[in-house]
Amino acid sequence: MKHLFIILLLCALSVSCKDKTDQSLVAEQSQQSDSLNIKKEDINKINYVDIGLDAKTNSIMPTWQAYQTLSDAVQSLKQADYSFFNTDIEVFSTAIKDLEQTIPPSIKTQSIEARVLAFKTKLLNLKDVNSLDFIDKKDILFATKEVFVAFSNLNLQINKKLEKDSQNIERPY
């Protein structure tokens, strides 16, 4: 009888210990998922120079639909909305391919093509980082910052191209 009582007591202790570890594991997982949720405040803490397009681009940019699509995606990214990067891979890939293939002829230079390629690379990197299950929040924020910087550099290059084209420099000879 004494042995039966000890065995029952040990079984009860082992079962109750397991419940506590399960509860602590669930609590730990919920804390971890909360720490991975990226909020608008986290995005606002990212330090980069945000360069927009000049008014001179108004005649060219509305016709470049792929740019407008990805510009909207970057704007939603600034609101901590990663839905564009979680969409179907076909939609994402098509938008990126269209960006490369439909550069307006008036701004199609090697420097702008290089900036588009860099922007494409950063978009793909963010999509990959965002799709991973076990990733730190700082890695996602770093990839987000890289997308913002690449987009700003693309805008800067477009602005520089149109500024240079608008200058009428007369040669002395």
Automatic annotation (TrEMBL):
<protein>
    <recommendedName>
        <fullName>Lipoprotein</fullName>
    </recommendedName>
</protein>
